[in-house]
Amino acid sequence: MGTPVPKQPSVGDLPLIGRVFEARAAEELALAVAVHEDLGNPEPPIPTPSSTASQPVHTATMDEAQNEAILPFLGPVLAYVPGETITVERHLTLEGDRYLADHAFVHAPGVKPASACLPVLPMTMSLEVMAEVAACLVPGYGLLGFEDVKATRWIELADTDVLTLHITARVDRHDEDRGASFIRVEVFIEGQTRPAISAMVLFGDHYLIELSPAFTELANPYRHPLTGEEIYGERHMFHGPSFHCLSGEIIVGDHGIIGEFVRHSPEDLFGSTRSPQLLIDPALLDGIGQILGVWAMEHGRYVFPIGLAKLEIYCPSPPVGTRVPVRVEITQTEGKRLLANVEVQDGAGAVWMRIVDWGSWKFNWEQCLVDFRRFPDQYLLGRAAPLPNSGDGSVCLTVTTAEFQNFDFSILARHCLSMEEMPVFNGHARIPQRQKQWLLGRVVAKDAVRLWAAEQTQAPMLHPAAFTIDNDGQGRPFVRALPGCNTPPLVSIAHSETRAIAVAHTEAVGVDIERIAEHDASFIQAFTTAHERNLIAKFPQVEHQTWITRLWCAKEATGKLLGTGINGLPQAFEAIQLENGGRIEIKHQTSARSFEVKTVEDCGFIIAYASQPHSSFGHKSESAYTIFG
């Protein structure tokens, strides 16, 4: 990429921000404007860093506002002291902030409304928010950059179409030697007492050229197998079209990455205007986090931005359509944080901006989860349960919490649950462990149903949130309706500690899972019959506790098959026969019916599967869809 240098700009190169007409004035602002106009001053004053703080800010008329580019993040002014502080209210809406639909963590197009897909304000959009509000305090000055950016929580529209932000800016200091004003800005979500993100925003009458991070040659460079366009096409990034700035070849090294961004028009980002006056290009700037994500994925990690130490701008944003080279050098990878220095060129051989210590949190996710997040309607989270295969058409899958290590379970719920199921999940929040177990059961049951339906209909697999698994009056789970399938399968679900298992079948089945554990004599006496204790006694003593767990699971599974549960009467289900392979014949004393139950031991747990007397045991071994094991 050569060694480009920042331009030495003239004052005229700075994008001057002199209008704040978009900020519907608080009483103080309106009064200041009226006084200014009464004094016969039609033009706004242009303060210097040493100007008095009492000079008013010019406000254009609404007619002028409609004909000119506007600062899209400025809303009603709640408080204002000219040249000192300002507080602006901004309502984020899915209708007005169209880019939010392209920055949603959950991929469920046509299945869930956008508000249920967890749209999140990108960190770089937050930088634009803070810059626009800070600009109100220094009209006539241009944006120089940011320092000490700290994002402490997501700004998300979770199950709402509107989120109110309060943005507070105050002049921290004027540095006459550097010709810069330093403005501290904090963004609060309404009702929160701590800012979601904060920064020092720099404005002045000429650019500062103070950063000179060293960029070394890439060690062991190689061409990434995918171009920027292919990365988006295969959804290795969750971002929608508004943020598709990576383009062409990407070169990856041991401690760095080189690529190219394309600057797109901002005309479709907002519903309120097609001519937003953006002080930075937040959609393109988001690409820095994306290209860092490409490097991290090549090293088995996934990252989200959390802030930066300093960003300097050296020239106005290049024209739309410009291809701008970018290079990144990784400076820290230890622990949970990844730090990097970044340089973005202007497409004409000079430097547009530099960043020192762009920070990201690192995550390590299982591959099955990574692929599922990309295409929930093509991948499963569950894996085939370790049960005998007899080709009876059932699908039995299992899952553990290990598949979701370092992943937020509330986001997992949004990926997998329908709109009707989410309130049930939230209702379990008082007991987090119970909530996780319930969710694991639903996740694996959804997978079993989706795989069963795809095999039955030879149709594409469904999105897990496209249907609902409910419970009847006895607590038995059932599929309420299944798109494209006239007769949904019957399901059974069980969970124990960190594991869950589910089966889907055309006929009634029952499944259970329990950890093998020591049981005292009183427990054994309470749920077994004398005949069952005699059967267990025939096995070696070392196997007794395992057989006790097998027997308990077999009774539970049979009760689920019948739809009655054990109902506090475990001895109403009696084992007639126990076989070395784990097969148990259970007789239901009330109905005099006998059922075959297969049990297997897996990683310290017993899994039991009960089927109708005429049914064989197992599940199909072949599938057109991916099961991770």
TrEMBL record:
InterPro entries linked to this entry: 4-PPantetheinyl_Trfase_dom (IPR008278), 4-PPantetheinyl_Trfase_dom_sf (IPR037143), PKS_dehydratase_sf (IPR042104), PKS_DH_C (IPR049551)
Keyword Transferase: yes
Residues annotated as domain Polyketide synthase dehydratase: 217-356
Example of a GO MF term: magnesium ion binding
Keywords recorded for this protein, A-Z: Plasmid, Transferase
All residue ranges annotated as the 4'-phosphopantetheinyl transferase domain in the record: 508-594
A Pfam family that the UniProt record links to this protein: PS-DH
SUPFAM superfamilies: 4'-phosphopantetheinyl transferase
Protein name: 4'-phosphopantetheinyl transferase
